[in-house]
Amino acid sequence: MPSGRVHTWINTLSYGALLAGASYALERGWLRVDLAQAALFSAGFWAGTLLLSPDLDLAEGSVRSKRAWGPLGALWVPYGLIFRHRGLSHSWLVGPLTRLLYLALLVGALLSLLSWLLPALGQALLLYLAQLTRAGVLPWVWLLAGYYLSQWLHLIADGIRPDTDFRRWQARPH
Ligand SMILES: [Zn+2]
User: Fold this and answer.
1) E-strand stretches of the chain
2) What is the C-alpha separation between 145 and 42, in angstroms, rounded?
3) How many CB atoms lie within 10 A of CB 121?
4) Sign of CA dihedral 63, 67, 69, 73
5) Whole domain around residue 137: which residue ranges?
6) Distance between Cα 145 and ligand 1 center (Å)
7) Ligand 1 midpoint to CA 85 (Å)
8) What is the pLDDT of residues 25-40, one digit of tens each?
9) What pLDDT does 173 receive?
């Protein structure tokens, strides 16, 4: 199983290859992507590579993606305790979603705490979040595409194939 450092390298090289391929396609007019879309895709990709790696299922110990959060890394310990290493957290569709939901819970809890401690700041942040939702779904699609690609590269490097998800579902008692 590759280490966190090797996963980061694999993702970095893949991103470089993708960038080269996309630049080539853009130059020839085969692809149309604007700067905002590319930035969102990249943000999703790097957040997924550095901060939201599937190996956060080891966050009860010391793992690279937990350390990347600095002191906030401790917030991922419950995630590490809930998810068995290379279990559901390492599935192709649901796995990346579990980390997004967990993150949404963390942000929600933090916002509630902030709006209780500093009502004005909490209100401003909520307004900002409402504005983000008004931007429509397209920005989220680009963000998610980058994020999911980073997760899938990790799973491929771990030797986990997409059909594992299907077999996992099939193996469930009905
Ligand atoms: Zn892994």
Assistant:
1) none
2) 9
3) 12
4) positive
5) 4-170
6) 19
7) 8
8) 999 989 888 899 999 9
9) 56
Distance 139 CA to ligand 1 centre (A): 27
With CA atoms as reference, report the closest residue to 4 among 75, 97, 91, 67: 67
| DSSP-assigned letter for residue 33 | -
Give the separation between CA 71 and CA 68, rounded to whole angstroms: 9
* Total domains in the fold of the chain: 1
> Would the CA dihedral through 136, 138, 144, 150 be positive or negative?
negative
What amino acid occupies position 29? G
Six-digit token pair at 39?
A: 């930035």
Sequence-ordered alpha helix ranges (H) in 28-118? 35-46, 64-67, 77-82, 94-117
Residue 110 has pLDDT above 80, yes or no: yes
